[in-house]
Amino acid sequence: MSRGKRYDTEPKLNMTKVFAVAIAIAVIIMFVFIIKGIFTKDNTSGKITSKSYFTSYKDNKWGVIDAEGNNVIDPSYKEMIVIPNSKMPVFICTYDVNYETGEYSTKALNEKGEKIFTQYSKVEAIQNKDKNHNLWYDQDILKVQKDGKYGLVKISGEEILPTEYEEITSISGIENSFKIKKDGKYGIVDNEGKIVVEPKYADIDVLGEDNKSGFIVKDDNGKYGIIDYSNNQVLETKYDGIEKVYGNDLYVVTVDGKQKLVNKENADVLTKGFDSIKQILENQENAVIFVKSNKYGVMNLSGEVLIDAEYDDLKETKTGIFIAKKGDKYGIIDNEKQEKIPFEYSSISYNKKADIYVAEDSNFNSNVLNSNLETKLTGILIELNESKGYLKLRINDEYKYYNFKFEEKQEADIFPNRTLFLSKKDGKYGFVDKTGKVIVDYMYDDATEQNDYGYAGIKKDGKWGSIDTKGNVVQEPTYNLDEYLLINFIGRWHLGLDINMNYYNQL
Length: 507
Fold this sequence. Notes:
Blueprint: E1 3-5, E2 12-13, H1 15-20, E3 40-43, E4 46-49, E5 53-58, E6 61-66, E7 71-77, E8 91-98, E9 103-109, E10 115-116, E11 122-129, E12 135-146, E13 149-154, E14 159-165, E15 167-170, E16 177-182, E17 185-190, E18 195-201, E19 203-206, E20 215-218, E21 224-227, E22 233-239, E23 241-247, E24 250-255, E25 258-263, E26 268-270, E27 276-280, E28 287-292, E29 295-300, E30 305-311, E31 313-318, E32 321-326, E33 329-334, E34 339-345, E35 347-351, E36 356-360, E37 366-369, E38 375-385, E39 390-395, E40 398-403, E41 408-409, H2 411-414, E42 421-425, E43 428-432, E44 438-444, E45 446-447, E46 456-460, E47 463-467, E48 473-479, E49 486-487, E50 489-490, E51 493-495, E52 503-505
Parallel strand pairs: 5-52
Antiparallel strand pairs: 1-12, 2-49, 3-4, 5-6, 6-7, 8-9, 9-10, 11-12, 12-13, 13-14, 15-16, 16-17, 17-18, 19-20, 20-21, 21-22, 23-24, 24-25, 25-26, 27-28, 28-29, 29-30, 31-32, 32-33, 33-34, 35-36, 36-37, 37-38, 38-39, 39-40, 40-41, 42-43, 43-44, 45-46, 46-47, 47-48, 50-51, 51-52
């Protein structure tokens, strides 16, 4: 299943706004997947062809635009139109909302404004949240209702789960599983419609970050256990609670209000010396991060304390290396409690795939460190893109790109399909082509890079506008966007103030 946040473009940070508001933006990780060509598939109303579509907002009404800024659905709806997959013309419209009872109606429209999925009484996008609490919709699956029961369909129209369930809900942060309810019991279905766990439990949840890690199940007596992906019993359903903390075939359970560590044979491994267990160390066998009196430390499975419980947070990143917190500041220590990075940062994160640490101070300045904890780059980190393997930083009012080896790259190296490239001269911004030829004169006070739809923002005399792929002005600089965190245009439409909603408006 592909995953899409409710914002999936790569707009420019409005630096004036960033420094004016107290919002902790440590790392913006945005994945932009561009589908080239045309994708066509039959559904109940004919053919669906792929382009790019966005929710629009004008005069207090909601509509849909395409990647050229053209109206696809005129702004005429009172409620926001949801577009689960920006590449597919399936637009979920909500209407006849009764705010007192919570009742409402929905319909799905295609790019011609025609109703699709008409065999169902209700069609809904499936909303979820990632670990940073960003909202996103499942891009491939829709929830449908018929005769008061729910099922699932592919966004292309294929029914994958019949409408015979009382409830179908997402599981927070999980991309490939849905919770189903039938006859008052819960189970799990995957994104292909396969029943992974039959609905026979009083409650169920995913143990880890996907359904392959197994499931925490609750029986009718209110007791919890664990089953694996093949429905084999891993832990008996005899515990008062089970935490989503596991590793090395060890699990954190609760009995009579007290946590303990058990193995897959249900035998006790660690029972005292802590109030709770937060992490089973995968890189360092036979040890856990524990909490006692609201402080974090490390102990082995014999109960011997390896790192005293004196930190306000503690996370292992690599063998013997921990991101630690004292008060409101973060640093990095080793298993001998030696400070590898001093406690002077507002946040520190580790990206396992890139093998990179990012340490950010209170002014949003970041030090980017390699695996040896050596500072390799310093600036405002705008993006760490795992899929394309690059970092984007703002350094001395300029944007710079680097690969994960910290080698500087040009914008054209990262985005070879762009036609214009941001350039600065004598304090003014303009645009050049791949050869360095000036296409847009150096006349603007600020500007954005060209986005994936060919538009770039331009700022003059405190106001913003936009240009197209050839450098032609599409929107004269007339928009005051001082309150906007991100600057991004599609034609004359600008990304809305609430970036998590991913809509475009005209001011």
